[in-house]
Structures are given as structure tokens and as C-alpha cells.
Design a protein that fits this description.
mainly alpha, Four Helix Bundle (Hemerythrin (Met), subunit A), binds heme C, 6 helices
């Protein structure tokens, strides 16, 4: 082996080792922080969407916030997949994971549909769908610790 190929092999090993390490050593605090960040992003986009409807923010941003909401919603279930009890998530998230994941998938599908309609038809077409798509409270009532 040349020096360079020895170096390259060593580097490849180090990269492989660092990539495989987190699988056994994920800090539960990181898992909880991560899903809170995802949820906060949803909160920010829902608030921004509302402001566009109230005339307090540019109306043309409505569809963008709907699309961003849908994009974040599509990642939300992944953030809850690793079981890390704590934060404000009730243990029921994992005890009733079939129901929880069904709700999260429906939420992602609903916001995706909302985004599509918002893009094609604007506020007029999408507004009636908002309440049905933003199922935030329904899930929080069951799966989030009340403050
Ligand atoms: C299918 C269930 C589900 C849906 C749908 C859902 N959430 Fe959540 N959300 C949770 C759970 C569970 C937590 C608690 C997470 C934790 O503390 O570990 C949470 C926490 C939050 C938090 C607090 C984050 C923090 O920093 O503590 C916000 C804000 C939030 N959600 C906003 C939203 C908004 C806005 C929507 C809808 C647009 C939404 N969520 C939809 C389950 C859901």
C-alpha cells in the first residue's frame, strides 16, 4: 500500500465507524430536543399561515406556509419513531403507537393536500380545508402532557 492508500483506508474506516456509532449511542435528550424542534417548526408555520389569513402578513405567502407546514409534517413521525419517553410526550405515544402513527400520517396527508390546493387555487380554495387539516389539538389532547 502506498502512504496515500493507507491514509485513505484509515479515513474510510474512521468515517464508517463514526457513521455507525450513533445507532447504539443516541442520547435520549437529543431525540426529545429534535422532535420539539420539529413541533416548534409546525407551530411557527401554523402561526405564520394564520397571519397571512388575518391580513397581518403578505397574502401571497399563504401557499408557501402551507407547503412548508406539509414538508415539516412529513418528517414529524420519524422524529417520534425512536422510543424516548420524556419531554411533554405522554408514554401513550409508544404504548398506542399504531393510533399515534395513523394520526401523524393523516396529518401529513391532510397538510400535503392543503398545500396542493393552496398552490393551485389560493386562499379561497384552501381556507375551508384548514380546520380539517390542522389536527394539532386533537393529537395534543391525547398524546401531549397538558401544561
Ligand atoms: C399526531 C400527533 C401530533 C400532531 C398531529 C401534532 N403534534 Fe405537536 N406535539 C405532539 C406531541 C406528542 C408533542 C410533545 C413532544 C415532546 O415534548 O416530546 C407535541 C409538541 C408540540 C409543541 C411544543 C414543542 C416544545 O417545544 O415543547 C408545539 C409548539 C406543537 N406540538 C405544535 C404543533 C402544531 C402547530 C401542530 C399542527 C400544525 C402539531 N403540533 C401537530 C404531537 C402532535
Amino acid at each position: 500500500m502506498t502512504r496515500f492508500s493507507q491514509f485513505a483506508a484509515g479515513l474510510a474506516f474512521a468515517v464508517a465507524a463514526s457513521l455507525s456509532a450513533p445507532a447504539n449511542a443516541v442520547d435520549p435528550t437529543d431525540l426529545i430536543d429534535y422532535r420539539k424542534h420539529v413541533m416548534k417548526s409546525l407551530g411557527a408555520q401554523a402561526a405564520a399561515l394564520n397571519m397571512t389569513l388575518q391580513g397581518k402578513a403578505p397574502a401571497e405567502s399563504f401557499a408557501i406556509h402551507a407547503e412548508t407546514l406539509a414538508l415539516v409534517a412529513s418528517t414529524a413521525l420519524m422524529a417520534f419513531e425512536p422510543k424516548a419517553e420524556g419531554g411533554d410526550a405522554k408514554p401513550e405515544v409508544w404504548a398506542k403507537y399504531a393510533d399515534f402513527s395513523k394520526r401523524m400520517k393523516e396529518f401529513a396527508a391532510g397538510t400535503a393536500e392543503l398545500a396542493k390546493v393552496a398552490k393551485a387555487g389560493g386562499v379561497a380554495a384552501a381556507q375551508p380545508m384548514i380546520q380539517g387539516a390542522l389536527t394539532c389539538k386533537g393529537c395534543h389532547d391525547v398524546y401531549r402532557v397538558k401544561k
